[in-house]
Amino acid sequence: LVPFIDENSDGQFNPGEEQVPGVTFRNQLRGGKALSNEQGIATLDGIAPSNINTVSIDVKTLPDIYMTPALEKLRIFGKPGFSGPIYYPISLLGEISGTLLSSQPVNTGIEQSDVAGALGAVQIVLLDQNDTVVAETYSEYDGFFSFQSLPLGAYRIYVPPSPLLDGWFTGDRNGPAITLTADNTEINTLE
After folding, report:
1. The whole model's pTM is what?
2. CB neighbours of 34 closer than 8 A, spacing ≥ 6?
3. How far is residue 69's CA from residue 54's CA, in Å, rounded to a whole number?
4. Rounded mean pLDDT of 28-34?
């Protein structure tokens, strides 16, 4: 078994995609376990011939919190004389975070601020490239927000109209574009 980072999310091992060492596999049919070596290759003994063997990854053994198995489990038909390799895709996840700041005083509903600053309790929506809502959150008191465990891809931030922002923000859906890639899984500079 060969666990690999499926950078283009096609489920196929392509040249240049990285094999992952230190990943534990488990055969749920017979209970066998195997650990991928330094080259990212694991030998799982005990595959039952002429049966469907269900193999999964122990997610606790993935070396990075931004990794997750692309498949919950892999079904392997035990075929006498066949020894692999069998590639198991691992997806990378990302995180988008930032801070909402005002460039002008904001009426919070409790008091009028005379100073520009952090925007707390503001709804923030994350849209994918098809303009579909992927996640929603609210900014913290200091304006901080975060979207975690996101598949790699293109996103946009959208701040819907709210009473807090009335008078100076229209809430259009043309927020900043963000792309999470294998080389850039954490974006935390949005302001």
Report:
1. 0.71
2. 1, 24, 25, 42, 43, 44, 45
3. 14
4. 88
